[in-house]
Write a structure and sequence with these properties.
Largest sheet: 5 strands, antiparallel
Distance between the termini: 45 Å
Number of helices: 15
Structural class: alpha+beta
Shape: globular
Radius of gyration: 20 Å
Strand order of the largest sheet: 1-2-3-5-4
């Protein structure tokens, strides 16, 4: 580690410490993650999911680069390329800046195209991410990169998988219904959620619990049936879940600033049945990207007060629970550092540390100002009318 000079301490979690450093030979700025677990053999290091996936995907420009691994005295250091900020921070900065506008559709097109290029490559070469969200899409100038592969799995790996993956707002319905046989379509769902958030500057499926998120999904997509998602009906029965009776809503109403091509693309991703969601490679051929030219630059001018791992500079950290509810499984699963309250959400944003990898999440323990009161009442009514969900979660 003598080749690197530490510049700044970026954050610490249960499993890792992260620092900003400079390569003394080349002058390059990097991010170094020191894992707290001790590794007695090199093979243990090589077998880490994060390491295996990033080594195989290192040729793609839209996936974060693991530059090297260093093991000294049973300590493992992962050296990453340094990125300026993440996508959620960009939205936060724009929302707080008095003269900044939201993303234009051309900027959203640029972000999505680069994201889907990285995802298509990832899926083609046998991995799915399982935790895509704005915090895990890193930005450096005009480059967008997918990061945080601690939950990545091989597409051909043998189920069952854990059902508790991804941040709640971006969690696919099959995972909410505790499927253990899901695959790469959960990444497609997450990108659909991210796309809607880029337009609206708020999560499409916000909820303080999994069941609330699920009922918001139902209120938008409508209640599934044996004809639209037979596997989902079986999953719901298995965990004694009663679906709410909802007619669904038009995506045009929910994302009013989007063009029809954008709405159509969103609809290709946000489908109950994972088998009916489009693939990343097919989405790249959609008219949203082909009808008009894709911008060659992102053209962002808002300066950042954040670093690559989502930790705000000059703030006081308070240890809080990310979910803000009484579900003991969720409360014990992830802890976060609260570091931000902003006008857009009145919601805490923190750094989630899990599975020897830095995950960046948002706490949901406070009131969110943009939720429509009538919508809240409708959701509450659906929750009251639906029984048995606690057996599922």
């Amino acid at each position: 580690m003598d080749k690197y000079q530490t510049i700044d301490f970026l954050g610490e979690g249960s499993f890792a410490k992260v620092s900003k450093a400079k390569d003394l030979k080349t002058g390059e700025i990097v991010a170094i993650k020191k894992l707290k677990k001790k590794y007695s053999t090199w093979q243990e290091c090589v077998d880490l999911r994060e390491v295996k996936s990033l080594n195989k995907l290192k040729q793609n420009d839209n996936i974060i680069k693991l530059k090297e691994m260093i093991r000294t005295e049973e300590n493992l250091y992962l050296v990453f390329e340094y990125m300026e900020k993440n996508l959620y921070e960009l939205m936060t900065e724009k929302d707080k800046h008095p003269t900044a506008k939201r993303f234009s559709e051309q900027q959203i097109k640029y972000i999505l195209f680069q994201t889907l290029q990285g995802m298509a490559y990832m899926h083609k070469y046998g991995f799915f991410h399982r935790d895509l969200k704005p915090e895990n899409l890193l930005v450096n100038g005009d480059k967008i990169k997918i990061a945080d592969f601690g939950l990545a799995r091989e597409i051909r790996s043998i189920p069952p998988y854990t059902d508790y993956v991804s941040t709640r707002y971006y969690r696919a319905p099959e995972c909410i219904l505790k499927s253990t046989n899901y695959n790469s379509p959960i990444d497609i769902w997450a990108v659909g959620c991210i796309m809607a958030e880029l337009f609206n500057f708020k999560p499409l499926f916000y909820g303080s619990s999994e069941k609330e998120v699920f009922f918001r999904i139902a209120s938008v997509l409508g209640t599934p049936s044996n004809g639209t998602w037979p596997e989902g009906i079986l999953l719901a029965k298995k965990c004694d879940m009663k679906f709410p009776n909802a007619a669904g809503m038009s995506l045009n109403q929910l994302v009013p600033d989007a063009s029809q091509e954008a709405i159509d693309l969103l609809g290709e991703m946000l489908r109950w049945d994972p088998n009916k969601r489009s693939t990343a490679s097919n989405l790249l051929q959609h008219s949203f990207f082909t009808k008009t030219p894709i911008p060659v630059r992102l053209n962002l001018n808002v300066e950042s007060n954040f670093n690559v791992f989502g930790i705000a500079n000059d703030v006081n950290y308070g240890l809080i629970n990310r979910f803000g509810n009484n579900n003991e499984a969720e409360k014990n699963d992830v802890k976060t550092f609260s570091n931000l309250n902003n006008n857009r959400h009145s919601i805490n944003k923190g750094n989630e540390f899990k599975n020897n990898n830095i995950h960046i999440g948002r706490a949901g323990n406070s009131e969110i100002s943009y939720i429509n009161k009538r919508e809240e009442d409708d959701i509450s009514k659906m929750l009251e009318d639906t029984v048995g969900f606690n057996k599922c979660i």
